[in-house]
Amino acid sequence: MGKILFVSNRSEKIKQYREIMKKHDFTVAESESSAIEAVEITQFDIIIFDDNLDKNIMKKLKSVTNKPSFILLTKKDKLESDKDINGFLTDDMPEELVNSAINLNLRTHKSLEQLSDTNKNLADSLYRLNVLYSTSSKFAGSLDKEKLLDYMIEGMDKSLSFDLTCTLAFCTEEQPVLILNSLYEISDELLNAIKIRTAMNYKSLFKMPLTDNIKVIKNIKYPGKSFTFSIFEYDNMFAPISAGDNFFGCIEIFKETPFTSDDATCFQTIAQQVSLPLKSATLYQEIKETNLKLEKLERLKSEFISIVSHELRTPLTAIKNSLDILSCGRCGDINDSGIKFLSMAQRNVERLSGIINDLLDLSKIEAGKMDYHFTNMNIHSVIDYVKNSLAGVANEKGLRLIAEETVNLPDINADSQRLEQVLTNLVSNAIKFTPSGKTITIRSHLADASQITTNECFKPDIDKLKGQYVIVCVEDEGIGIAQKDLLRAFDKFAQIENSLSRKAGGSGLGLPIAKQLLEAHNGAIWCDSEPEKGSRFYFALPVSQIPADEKILISN
Amino acid sequence: MKKILIVDDEQDIVESLKFVLEAADFTCYCAYNGEDGLKLAKEIMPDLIILDVMMPKINGYKISRLLKYDKKYKDIPILMITARSQEEDKLIGEETGADEYITKPFDLNDVVNKVKEYLWKQ
């Protein structure tokens, strides 16, 4: 049985078809206006249109409804095909033929309708999948909690077309936040109802009354309109947002029409998808905050050291000057033990000023404020300078200080003053830790990074090196360093724990400074030692990349 | 006798510098802040000035600049005493015209030698 509209002004045909179609829901329209009225009220399966009428009426009907099949009842024997018409009936057609034609049309019409429904469902599912896909891509690309929540709401809006969502987020700030996304304006009464509902649901999680403490963010799509019904008349869905032990919050979604099971799946999927990115975002934020704190601390430390060093220098200068004046005898003669204690005081002033200088250097390096004056230079000049300036100190202690250099080493691009500082430190250490009668040797040679062999603990530093390096080695026959302490030798203040080396004086900052200075030169420092068998400290500097002819230009 | 002006707010340091310089036969004038230092410099026309950087009211850099940009005083050698502090770092890079920098803690003999060197040049 189908719904059929018969549009005709021929009474004999009306009568005939009323008879034929008595099994169907049969309506007759005799004029244009009554036909349009009928079409507007009822959804017909088939409209039979009499050719006797003006064709324009059919066009008008088509413009009102496109769904029914249009069958033309015509007197003609010859039928012209027309895109607006799904079938024909002729005036002289026998009753059986008319019936079968109508039935066939009805069946086709039903199948088409089913097909179009299925198609619509498929398109719907495809659209939702697309939304889910794009939402999850957005989740993956963000580490911002607020944005993640926005993406979640956006995804739900597209796939579920809600009227109102309430998202309660606990972990965004100190206080819980209730985010309301709504089609229409929310009245104070409704807002209160939602707040009380939330408070009732989560009162176990909060010590304070949630209704007063909660922060509300409202996003209203059409602020001109407001909800006329109580929210409890709406269909709703609810999902927690959590990842493992982290309970982030929950989301509730309201809609005037009932949700389908597909809606529920989609909703759950989005709520689940957002959980993990939210957890990552929380962790990321924590790490960022900790990092900021650490950076600030580091900066404060550098500033503190710098200020303290300055404050120490001025009184130290006054002490040093007084001692110098006393010791040169200008204030009268001093006996032997007086000289002994004066020189003790002088020695310790020197030591203290060395420590302050080291502290300042290190804080400057760490604050990135150290100035370097890189020039093309040869390592020979540095070795010569250090050897000459420390030969006296070595002799005093009964040590031999010699240099075994490779001739014609290529140039390096470096700050000579800083390299002198590094080498002076290494040689001074060697002098300090070597008993009298022994020898200290400064060696230099050229090597490829791949040829450098070293203790396992310095491997990561050496692995960074690539290409040709000028290598300087300071070898002593002193007390040596135990295997486990090798790496620690380059740590700040490492010496402080070692009472033996503390006797030798120094700040314990020389090696850490040397390490940082060499890193600024794209070089490296490492050592090789055994207790009682002496130490070898090495440092490597990359061979200058400036070609020889340009070097001549520079020197000219 | 050559006249040397020492300007430093640290009296102890002024005292020790004065002692060694007088022992080396120089006449010393002392000022304990920037303002007095600048006034004294214009009054006595010293042959050389030893100037601390960090001082209240007018710092050493400023005094040095004021003198070096004045035709009348620009030839007076200035030895600047610095503690390499952070505040000083911020000021460095400004054109001060000082002839020499001495870092605290300094060696008194070095200072005397430097002073002699500059005065012989003249």
Q: What do these coordinates show?
A:
The complex is a heterodimer of chains A (556) and B (122). Chain A is elongated and about 150 Å long. Chain A has 556 residues and is α/β, with parallel strands linked by helices. Chain A has helices spanning 11-20, 32-41, 55-64, 95-140, 145-160, 188-202, 210-213, 261-327, 336-366, 379-396, 416-433, 459-463, 499-503, 510-520, 548-555, and strands at 3-7, 25-29, 46-50, 69-74, 87-90, 164-169, 177-185, 215-226, 235-243, 246-255, 375-377, 400-405, 412-414, 439-448, 468-475, 524-529, 535-542. Chain A has 3 domains: 3-115, 3-Layer(aba) Sandwich (Rossmann fold); 137-284, Beta-Lactamase; 371-552, Heat Shock Protein 90 (2-Layer Sandwich), CATH 3.30.565. Chain A starts with a strand and ends with a helix. Chain B is an alpha/beta fold. In chain B, 43% of the residues lie in helices and 20% in strands. Chain B has a 5-stranded parallel β-sheet, sandwiched between helices. In chain B, helix 1 packs across helix 5. Chain A binds chain B through residues 303, 306-307, 309-310, 313-318, 320-322, 324-325, 330, 349, 353, 360, 369, and chain B through 10, 12-13, 16-17, 19-20, 23, 83-87, 89, 104-109.
CATH fold-level label of the largest domain in chain A: Heat Shock Protein 90
What CATH first level of chain B would be assigned? Alpha Beta
Uncertain runs of chain A with pLDDT below 50, 5 residues or more? 499-503
| Main beta-sheet annotation of chain A | 5 strands, parallel
| H/I helix tally of chain A | 15
Going by CATH, the architecture of chain B would be: 3-Layer(aba) Sandwich
Radius of gyration of chain B: 13 Å
- Overall average residue pLDDT of chain A: 84
Spatial order of strands in the largest sheet of chain B: 2-1-3-4-5
